[in-house]
Design a protein that fits this description.
The two termini are about 65 Å apart. It contains ten helices and 13 strands. It is of the alpha+beta class and about 475 residues long. Helix 1 packs antiparallel against helix 4. The strands form three sheets. The protein has a six-stranded antiparallel beta sheet, with helices on both faces.
Length: about 475
C-alpha cells in the first residue's frame, strides 16, 4: 500500500476490530456464564422443590383416603412449579415408567400410558444421584433444553426420578442479541474511525505533501520554494520550519556559489586579459623594446596577483574542509604582531601613516601558528590598504578576563552601516572608496573570521566618525 491514508486506516481498523473482538468475546462470555449460572440455579431450585413434592407424593400415594385429594394438589404444585421456571418437568418411578408431565399449561398423568423415561438418563441419575445435560431430552422435547435430573428418595429407598427441563432458547437469543449489538457497534466505530482517519491523515499528510512539492521545485532549480507552515505548532510545524530553514540555507549557499563563480571569474579575467594584451603587444611589436621592461614588470605583478588569489582560495578550501593543520603550539602574540608590522614598514613609510602600538611586552597564547598568523596579518594588511596618506593605525592587545582581545583601528573612509554584515563574506568587497586597491582577493577577512571561529573566538567590525575598527577575542590557552 503506497497510500499513507490506506495504511493508517487499515492499522486503525485492525486495532479497533481486534480490540472489540477481545472485549466483545470477554463480555459475551461473562454474560453467557452469568446466564448459565442463573439457569442452573433456577433448575436446581426447581428440581429441589419438585423432588420434595414428589417424595411426599410417593409417601402418600398408597393411602386410599388421601390419594385423590393429594393427587390433585400434587398436580397443581407441579404445574405452578413448571410455570414458574417456564419449563417442563418429567416424573418417573424407579423402573423408569413415566408418571407425570408438567408444563406451564398443567400437569398431566401418564400412568395409563406405557411411556418410559430414557434408559441413559435413568441409569445416570440412579447411579450418580444427578443428571445434567443440554439436549432435547432424547426426543421428548422439540427444542434444545437445559436438563437437570435428581432422584426421589423416600424412606432411604429410591422411589423415582424428576427431570426439570428449561428451554435454552432464551440464552441463545441473548447471545444473538449481544452479537448483533457488538457487530453494529463495531461497524459504527469503524465508520467513525474512517472519518477521524480522513481528518487526521489529511492534517498529517498535507504538510508532508507541501514539503514534497517544495522539494520537487528545489530539484527543478526554484530555490525560492517554501512549504507553508501548519496551523498548529506541533512536530509537523517544527519539521516544516526546519525544512524552510534548510531551504533558505541552501538558497543562500546557491547564491554564494554563484557569487563565488562570478567573483573568481572577474578576478581571474582582469589580470589574464592584462597579461594577454601586453604579451601580444610585445610579440607583435606594438610595444617598443625600450618599453618592454616596464610592461613585463606589470605582467609580473599581475601573475603575482593571480598567485595570491590561488593561495587564498587554497587556504579557504583547507579551512572549510578541515585539512588545515589543527596542532596548537605556544606562541608570543606580541612578538608576532611586531614582526608583521616590520613587514609593512615600507608601505607605512610611503603613505606616512602614523602607527600606534599598545601591546604588552609578551603575550603567550596556545594556537595554530600559521593560521593565527594569517588572521592577524590579514587584519593589519587590510588596515594598511585602506588608510589614506598621513592617516593613523592603532593596534591594541590585552587580556580581558580569560580571553585575549585584539583591536585594530584605522582612519579613512567608512564602511556603510548596511554593508557591515557582509564584510566577512567570501569575495565581498565594499564600496569603491574602500576598494581602490585592486590587489585584494576578497578572501582575507573571510579567512580571518574562519580562523578566529576555529579557535573558539568571535570577531566583529564597527565603522563611523571617519574610523573603522576590527576586534576579535579568543579564549586564552597556555
Amino acid at each position: 500500500m503506497k497510500s499513507l491514508f490506506a495504511r493508517n486506516f487499515l492499522i486503525y481498523a485492525m486495532v479497533i476490530v481486534l480490540g472489540f473482538a477481545i472485549l466483545g468475546s470477554a463480555f459475551i462470555y461473562q454474560v453467557n456464564r452469568f446466564a448459565l449460572e442463573e439457569k442452573q440455579q433456577q433448575l436446581s431450585d426447581a428440581a429441589e422443590r419438585a423432588v420434595q413434592s414428589t417424595a411426599a407424593y410417593f409417601e402418600t400415594r398408597d393411602s386410599a383416603d388421601w390419594m385423590d385429594k393429594f393427587n390433585t394438589n400434587y398436580k397443581i404444585a407441579m404445574h405452578l412449579l413448571a410455570a414458574d421456571c417456564s419449563g417442563t418437568i418429567f416424573v418417573g418411578d424407579a423402573q423408569g415408567k413415566l408418571l407425570f408431565i408438567a408444563n406451564s399449561d398443567g400437569c398431566y398423568s401418564q400412568m395409563n400410558n406405557d411411556l418410559t423415561l430414557p434408559d441413559v438418563a435413568m441409569t445416570d441419575v440412579i447411579e450418580d444421584g444427578v443428571y445434567a445435560q443440554s439436549s432435547n431430552f432424547f426426543g421428548f422435547l422439540a427444542t434444545q433444553n437445559y436438563v437437570l435430573g435428581q432422584t426421589v428418595v423416600s424412606g432411604g429407598t429410591v422411589k423415582g426420578a424428576v427431570f426439570v427441563c428449561v428451554p435454552a432458547r432464551s440464552t441463545q437469543i441473548l447471545f444473538l442479541n449481544l452479537s448483533r449489538v457488538f457487530i453494529l457497534m463495531t461497524l459504527a466505530v469503524l465508520l467513525l474511525t474512517l472519518i477521524a482517519t480522513i481528518l487526521v491523515v489529511r492534517l498529517t499528510v498535507k504538510p508532508l505533501q507541501n514539503m514534497a512539492t517544495a522539494a520537487r521545485r528545489f530539484a527543478q532549480g526554484d530555490y525560492s520554494a517554501r512549504a507553508p507552515l501548519p496551523k498548529y505548532q506541533d512536530e509537523l510545524y517544527d519539521m516544516t520550519l526546519s525544512f524552510n530553514r534548510m531551504a533558505e540555507s541552501m538558497q543562500n549557499a546557491e547564491e554564494t556559489r554563484r557569487g563565488l563563480i562570478a567573483s573568481v571569474s572577474h578576478d581571474l579575467r582582469t589580470p589574464m586579459t592584462t597579461i594577454a594584451g601586453f604579451v601580444d603587444g610585445i610579440l607583435d611589436g606594438t610595444i617598443k623594446p625600450e618599453k618592454q621592461d616596464y610592461y613585463l614588470r606589470i605582467i609580473s605583478d599581475e601573475i603575482k596577483r593571480l598567485g595570491r588569489l590561488a593561495n587564498s582560495m587554497l587556504a579557504v578550501s583547507k579551512l572549510e574542509s578541515g585539512q588545515q593543520n589543527a596542532e596548537k603550539t605556544i606562541l608570543d602574540v606580541s612578538e608576532m604582531i611586531r614582526r608583521i608590522v616590520i613587514g609593512f614598514e615600507q608601505p607605512l613609510n610611503a603613505k606616512h601613516i602614523e602607527l600606534e602600538l599598545d601591546i604588552p611586552e609578551q603575550e603567550i597564547l596556545r594556537a595554530e601558528r600559521d593560521s593565527f598568523f594569517q588572521a592577524v596579518y590579514n587584519l593589519i594588511d587590510n588596515a594598511v590598504k585602506f588608510t589614506p596618506d598621513k592617516g593613523q593605525i592603532s593596534i591594541y592587545l590585552a587580556e580581558t578576563g580569560n580571553k585575549l582581545q585584539f583591536n585594530i583601528r584605522n582612519t579613512g573612509s567608512e564602511i556603510p552601516q548596511d554593508k557591515l554584515k557582509f564584510v566577512f563574506d567570501r569575495f565581498y568587497k565594499s564600496d569603491t572608496s574602500r576598494n581602490r586597491n585592486s590587489t585584494g582577493s576578497g578572501l582575507g577577512l573571510y579567512i580571518t573570521k574562519t580562523v578566529i571561529q576555529q579557535h573558539g573566538g568571535d570577531i566583529f567590525v564597527r565603522s563611523g566618525d571617519g574610523q573603522t575598527e576590527f576586534c576579535f577575542t579568543v579564549p586564552l590557552e597556555r
